[in-house]
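Example A, followed by Example B.
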Amino acid sequence: TPSPGQVSSPSPHGGLRRQHSAVYRGRASQAGNRRRSDNIAPTSPSGVERVATMIRLRPRLAAERTKDGERGLSVRIEPPSTVVLVDPHQNQQARTFTCDVALDSSDPALPHYVGQQEVYRAIGEKVVDHVLQGYNCCVCAYGQTGTGKTHTLHGDWASAEQRGPL
């Protein structure tokens, strides 16, 4: 961890290098002599920044299916936090990924199907609770175009049940 006045940044060699700035060192030493400003909210109840990851599986689009109707890569969610990828055309072991929350919205007929209300319960409630307690929070959606980021966060505002967390 850098000491006051030092900023860590990635180096091209994979390690951390320390950059010193006279202006930053001066500001940091001033800040070190006083308590944390009352107008800056902590980032989490524990005082430690925390990043939580959520993966949501959406239904396959027609263009994602092979011409003969077979599925290509198989993706399944094993609640509460595991994503399993299997390529039926390769004799490889399934790849398993773990995150904080894994939600399956691929098929409403499945027993563990998750709609917008459950998405809100999974991520939105915690964020709103922390914000109301005065903590800084951010929700960021990341992924390729067309994968459902906007739908997950905003949903359909014409229907109260289909609204997203934002």
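Example B, a separate protein, is given below in the same form.
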Amino acid sequence: MLTIENRKPQFYFVLETKCMGLKTAWVLLLVRNK
């Protein structure tokens, strides 16, 4: 049970970091177009 509980936060953390990367890349693209 401990391993599963420890893995869940990491999984969500990776998802959050990926979403942040996509957002920053999108913002950079918008700034470059302007």
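On Example B: The first helix runs from residue 2 to 33.
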